[in-house]
Amino acid sequence: MRRALLAALAATAPAAMAHAEEAVLFDGVQVAGIVHDGAKPSALAGEMLARDLSALSGKVPVVSDDLARCSELCIVIGTKGSALVRQVAADTGADLTALDDQWERYERVLLRSRRDPARRYLLIAGSDQRGAIWGMVDLGRALGVSAWEWWADVTPRRVDRLAVDGARTLSDPPSVQYRGIFLNDEDWGLQPWAAKTHEPETGDIGPRTYARIFELMWRLKANLIWPAMHDSTRPFYQIPGNAGAARDHAIIVGTSHAEPMMRNNVREWDEAKRGPFNYFTNRPGMLRYWGERAREVKDFETITTIGLRGKHDSAMEGADTPEQALDATARAIADQRALLAKAQGLAADKVPQALTLYKEVLDIYGAGLDVPEDVTLVWPEDNYGYISQLPTPAERARSGGSGVYYHISYWGRPHDYLWLATTHPALIREQMERAWRLDARKLWVVNVGDIKPGEYLTHYFLDLAFDHRLFAQTPRAHLTAWAEAQFGKEQARRIAGILTHYYDLAFERRPEFIGFSQTEPTRPIRIGDYIRTGGDEAQRRIDAYAALAFRTDAVGRTLPEDRRDAWFQLVGYPVHGAADINRRNLSLDLAALHARQGRPTVNALAAAARAAHQRIVADTAAYNAQNGGKWRGMMDMAPRRLPVFAEPPYPRAEIAAKPGCAVDASDLVFVTGKPSRRTLTVSSNGEPRNWSISLDRGITLLTSMGRLDADNGFEQRVIVRYDGAAAITGGMLACGDRSIEVTARLLPAPAPGAPAALDHIVSLSPDDAGMPADGSWEHVPDLGSRGTALRSSLTRPSADTIAGLDPLAWDFSAATAGEAELRIVAIPVHPLTAANGLRLAVRIDDEAPRILDFETHGRSERWKRNVLANSSAETIALGTLAAGAHRVRVYALDPGFLLDRIDVRFDGAPDYYGAPPVK
After folding, report:
1. Which of 424, 529, 514, 516 is nearest to 900 (CA)?
2. Within the chain, which residues score under 50 in pLDDT?
3. Does domain 757-906 sit in CATH 2.40.170.20?
4. What pLDDT does residue 113 have?
5. Widest CA span of the chain, in angstroms?
6. Cα-Cα end-to-end distance for the chain
7. Residue 919: what pLDDT?
8. Which end of the chain has fewer CB within 10 Å, C or N?
């Protein structure tokens, strides 16, 4: 009876379910089967989906390439042209013509068989193999499987029922055609982990490791890999099974900027056998070397890097002049294209090729290198997150298009950042959005280092590459959604807040840079610039990280057991690592300062530094021991053994105790009507003392009493909150048998909308600006020292004067006349294209505009300072500034300028390393 009824319905209903019926993949008893089209990628996709369904349901699905094994409901995965999908289409009347001639798209729909109405298919038909795979990935996402289910132990949770919407879904095409990752600097993480833990039978990054990497790429919808290539790792093509694993997973293989013609020169070029790696003296040998690989990989899907550099990420060997380098590069490209055409039996312009304009290659290109227009130009950033150059209108018209090579991990000068992944998501969004808007959309590759701990940044980069509509979303919103996918909705907003603060603090100074040392040549650590204003700025940073670590632990304690490992990998370890290396180094900087001042805090600060280092050691050991040792060898707390990572000596001072107490209330400066939080410091001169404080109403203390002793270095900082409403003067400190007056300063409220002066500085933030009506400036969310930055329009041409330009404008007041200067603080981007500069025109009141040029060249000392601080500043001396109201106007002379803030600095202003406090 049931079959007859279904047959009657089928006679009158279209093949797709008429009312968007649910596809129930698990009803608590049975789980849907999986049928694939027999192609290796589809078979692997079916097996991956089966693992997901099994983890979710506790039932093991049947996986087959035989449709006859499908029972009442089966998931069908295949390409549109496969025999399996054609069979399902014929059985159901499905129309899949929307997939014709498409790149990586899929259609998913619940269909009913006409021959057997009791049978239903959840069809995932791809326009090509990867299209079908993305359909499988999206199904897993809809069922709640994280992309990091294996790589960060976000274990799928068992459910009682699995269902998805059965309505027809046609996926959008990927925004960027080639989207990939570069495994790099793998010497301290990925390679030793693979060799000793995950794949000891190979003793290297072999096919079993790459299969896991390719599955992760599937879950992130990436289709291109540049394999690991350091000399610690055997070359990709020398390990049997690696190339086959890529082909089986439908992954396109390319090579980095330093590896033309799919070659790994570091381990594959043997000078004893092949001679020098010198195109001028050994061209025949190099052509043989390139030709061998071109023939070996002709049947694989590849994007070939072309061009000519040194043997390993160095300038071309044998070129004595820029002209020689230019000529040799052009001739080498011609030779390489001929070899590719011969190997593949195609015209050269039909073989996918890319030229990465990295380091000196960008200079050669700028000198006039003629690159065949079918070759994709890949624009690099400067290794620190700032794209060096993007295409001009003429370059955007090239048939090969262009793309971007980006870093979230880097080895090199002025300093590595290989340990913790701290590139700000808002910077990634801003830089890749400008690439998108300037049509650099063909190929995006991100250097992910060891993959871990760069999970989120990798995910975000690849999400933007797949779907450019995410640029309309703030980074904070994306991070919140990502946190929900890993840890659930309840804590997602708090987790996003924690990680945003983590990235904010690192944007001011990365954890790896906190020693203020440099590499290549390696320079020792030194007392950092956070001390130069007397130590308060260093202490505020320590406190900020301590508060962040506290919040992290508080959220971690609320998570269920099955998310504890994932939490530690994705949040806990990075936050605590960053907090502890800051506490260690800044505490020692403060100890050195306090020793010179004869303060008894030296030993307590040294003890805090020692404890912080011990926590890094313990946390790293815990990371590598997680999940039964699954990640043993993955995390190294001291990559390259740079000075900043070494355990430092801890000072000890013997300072004679003196009677008496003191209170430093210099920070207690409040603005009428503005709630804020400041600190005061209570200390004794080496004698134990009990203390208590009473302050005016309107002021509250985090703690109002305590004890000064050796454990705290006879010094305690107290957080003071002002409610903004009351008139205040101060209070009294009782310390031992002494009473000391505590004085607070209350500044008058500024004019409505005008910022207040603190510490002789008026800091003008992007939110304070009057925006021009012509759209020449726009807000960039979540970026910069004030949580938003201002960007000059990407579409406006450069100008040499302010004629016809509308300015940004800020109003502020000077309480008294005095010497002042204007510090314009920018985020250190580069000129948008080769045709642009990086200039602002600035006017104070009615004075003539002053033009400031922020462009840096090469690897200058200024560029090094800029990228280590994510900041670039220019100063205008104002002379004696009259008391009263003033106006600052800023005009964009070039597109793509990123303005962080403007500080009006009066005589006596401290020279903060970071942004001055505003509350």
Report:
1. 424
2. 1-15, 18
3. no
4. 95
5. 100
6. 76
7. 67
8. N
Rounded-to-integer distance, Cα 425 and Cα 475, Å: 6
Walk across the sheet containing 33-36 and list its strands: 63-64, 33-36, 73-79, 120-126, 106-112, 169-170
Number of other residues whose CB lies within 10 A of the CB of residue 673 = 11
Q: What is the CA radius of gyration of the chain?
A: 31
Does domain 2-170 bear CATH number 3.40.50.920?
no
How many other CB atoms are found less than 10 A from the CB of residue 550? Answer: 11
Select from 808, 883, 789 the least CA-distant residue to 849. 808
* Share of the chain residues as helix, strand and coil, in percent rounded to the nearest 5: 35, 25, 40
Residues 618-653, buried b or exposed e (16+ Cβ, 10 A)? Answer: ebbeebbebeeeebbbbbbbbbbebbbbeebebeee
Nearest to 674 by CA among 604, 724, 609: 724
Q: Which residues contact 836 (CB under 8 A, 6 or more apart)?
A: 798, 894, 895, 896
515 close to 588: Cβ distance less than 8 angstroms: no
The CA distance from 829 to 783, in Å, is 13
CATH code: domain 178-473 is: 3.20.20.520
Tokens 């050691």: give the residue.
Answer: 617
**Contact present, 75 and 34 (Cβ < 8 Å):** yes
Q: Which residue has the tokens 């300028």?
A: 897
Superfamily of domain 661-747: Immunoglobulins (2.60.40.10)
Per-domain boundaries in the chain: 2-170, 178-473, 503-645, 661-747, 757-906
What distance in Å separates the CA atoms of residue 227 and residue 181, rounded to the nearest whole number? 8
What six digits make up the tokens of 862?
Answer: 């200024």
Four-CA torsion 568, 574, 580, 584, nearest 10 degrees: 150
DSSP-based three-state secondary structure for 835: coil
Is there a contact between 484 and 492 (Cβ–Cβ < 8 Å)? Answer: yes
CATH of domain 503-645: 1.20.58.2150
- Confidence (pLDDT) at 12: 35
Give the pLDDT confidence score for residue 1 in this predicted structure: 38
